[in-house]
Amino acid sequence: KDMRIDEHLLPAGTSISIPILAVHHNPTVWENPSSFNPERFNAEKSAERHPYAFIPFSAGPRNCIGQSLALDELKTSICKVLLRFRLSPNHTQPKPHFKSSLVARSMDDIYVNLQLLSD
What we know:
119 residues, alpha+beta, two-stranded antiparallel sheet
């Protein structure tokens, strides 16, 4: 059936797509949205935001069933790398450019410097 959202009428059968990259770079939600700032995801700042301001695995009852496993694997992998290496940006290479599709991806290689930590 037809649905009204604010002043917009959506006829029955209308397909809707949510541009995730645009949501994640919304300057009304994120200060300096294009800069890397992991502190924006700390508990205090996250509590101030709408729960759907950051939706890397979709949201609601039909979100990604692999979300928990993917996050656990990501954290484990990052921990293993950080226990062995010091990472720093490689400023000799150009900054990567990103394209938006179903998943945001870099169009270029992303270069970092790895320095082996001593035991």
